[in-house]
Amino acid sequence: MGKTRRKRRYLKKNGCLPPTNNEKIVLTSRQLENLITRVRINQMEEDGFYRKQIQKRLNSNPTTINKWGKIGFDNPRAFLEGVRTGRPEVSRTIEKSVLRKRTNKSFNLRKTGLQLNISHTTVKNILNDAELKWKVRPTATKLTVNHKKQRLKFCKEYKDRDLSWWDKLLITDSKIFLLSGGRNPKQHGRWVFDSEELDLWEVDKFAKGLHVYGGMTSKGVSQLVFINGIIDGERYVNEVLPILIDIQERTEETDDVTTTALFDDNDDWIFEQDHAKCHDANITQEYLRENVPDFFNKNEVPAKMDDLWCIERIWAVVTSKVYGGQKQPKSLPALKRRIIKAWESLDPITLKKAVHQMPIRMKEIMNRKGNRIGSFKEHCDCPSCVE
Ligand SMILES: [Zn+2]
Known about the structure:
Elements: H1 3-14, H2 29-46, H3 51-58, H4 62-70, H5 76-84, H6 92-101, H7 109-116, H8 120-129, E1 133-135, H9 145-158, H10 163-166, E2 169-178, E3 190-192, H11 195-206, E4 209-216, E5 225-227, H12 233-244, E6 270-272, H13 277-280, H14 282-291, E7 294-295, H15 311-323, H16 332-344, H17 348-367, H18 383-386
Helix pairs in contact: 7-8, 9-17, 12-14, 15-16
The protein binds zinc ion.
């Protein structure tokens, strides 16, 4: 058998070339570390451990275990080859500059790779190694068992309230509108350590956009409040709440959602907000205790009820009016004008239907044992909704 043919057969059988004599193998420290892990995996496999057990003991992931479980000691050559195919180490300087650059507004894998003369995959690997994750503001986060329990409890308590009770709610929430529209959400992601960092960046550093607060009842809407920068309890109490709850002048029912009376009785209504940090702040809770007839305090309403509160649906309507069927707004003032226009043109029946849908949604949440509702088409059949 010729030399080349023997080589080829060896390659076919073992997945690598046969060793040449006197070849020196140089491993980097990371490769050596990998080698040790891999030896341990193989040892444990031979000792009859299950993959799950190995995974737990080595604090490793299933892919690694699988990969290295397949190449055993009886093929030391393939074993070493495998170790050496690990990606090359990059210098600390390059790592540092990648990590520094990730905070730039226009950070981009390809561009950064070109600047540093490394491939975009390497840039990505550096970010992954630093345990940074590509995160996009989630539209809905996962529910834990406890969330579901709290949701069920809350729904059980309120599902049978009649519509006149639901008409007493002022439901408020904030929304971020970006200049770039909701068009390509992937572009709105960032390399961050956790979601909290994403929240800060989204409003403050990256997004050219607007943060706006609004409130609604089954009859009309509050004024919008636009907020610059980070909001805390104090700013919320001073800049947002007074405007959201300013309804004293609104005593007559009109066709205009922005001026019509929001409640049958301005001294008998309930303020609702979700669980942002500034909403649960002591100063905020104190302010509400003194300034609104009634409100859900921070312990009364569970978190993650976004599929219940109807203002989410209303923001969706506003969003589609702001971005839909036209070019993206060119400037923040233009975006602001569009948001206000969309908000003020909300249809009273849409509002009423959204509010009256909440008790039906509560029942659905209970049907689903606390799980989140996806799209939901059922509507109230009271005379004003059916009209
Ligand atoms: Zn109705």
